[in-house]
Amino acid sequence: MKWLLITLAVALAGCASQPAAQDKIQPEVQRMAQQNGESRQPVLLRLTQAASESQLQQLRDLGVVLGAVTGPIVSASIPTVQLSSVAALPFVERIEASRQRPKKH
């Protein structure tokens, strides 16, 4: 019985340490989604580790259009209505606004 209680406590502590889906979405992305009313948001996804093919497929299944995948960073375009669903995926650490960088000459 004691072992069961310890296992349950550890499992619940692990759940409590995961941020809520909305907390994973950068405030700037949330503002852009509300203000622009665009159907898609260009973003950078920060993952907990380099994505597996299965994880990339989960993103595609939510309507995410994938761009470059470099280790745990994925450039993508997400349907605005799916932002929370993508953030709720356990392997998604953060959703950040995508910005164009000036070209270096």
Gist?
The chain has 105 residues and is α+β, with helices and mostly antiparallel strands. The chain is 38% helix and 26% strand.
Question: If you had to describe this structure to a student in words, what would you say it looks like?
Answer:
Keywords: Signal. Residues 1-21 form the signal peptide. The chain is an alpha+beta fold. The chain has one domain: Alpha-Beta Plaits (2-Layer Sandwich), CATH 3.30.70. The protein has 4 helices and 4 strands. The chain has helices at 2-17, 27-36, 53-61, 83-87, and strands at residues 40-47, 65-70, 73-79, 92-97. The protein has a 4-stranded antiparallel beta sheet with strand order 2-3-1-4. It starts with a helix and ends in an 8-residue tail after the last strand. Mean pLDDT is 84; it is low at 3-16.
Q: Can you summarize the main beta sheet?
A: 4 strands, antiparallel
* Chain-averaged pLDDT: 84
Poorly predicted tracts of residues: 3-16
Total DSSP E strands: 4
Number of helices: 4
Q: How much strand content do the residues show? A: 25-35%
Specify the helix fraction band. 25-40%
Tell me the domain tally: 1
Global Rg: 16 Å
CATH class categorisation: Alpha Beta
Structural class: alpha+beta
What form results from the Cα inertia axes? globular
Order of helices and strands: HHEHEEHE
Protein topology:
Layout: H1 2-17, H2 27-36, E1 40-47, H3 53-61, E2 65-70, E3 73-79, H4 83-87, E4 92-97
Antiparallel strand pairs: 1-3, 1-4, 2-3
Signal peptide: 1-21
Keywords: Signal
Notable features of this structure?
105 residues, alpha+beta, Alpha-Beta Plaits, four-stranded antiparallel beta sheet, disordered N terminus, signal
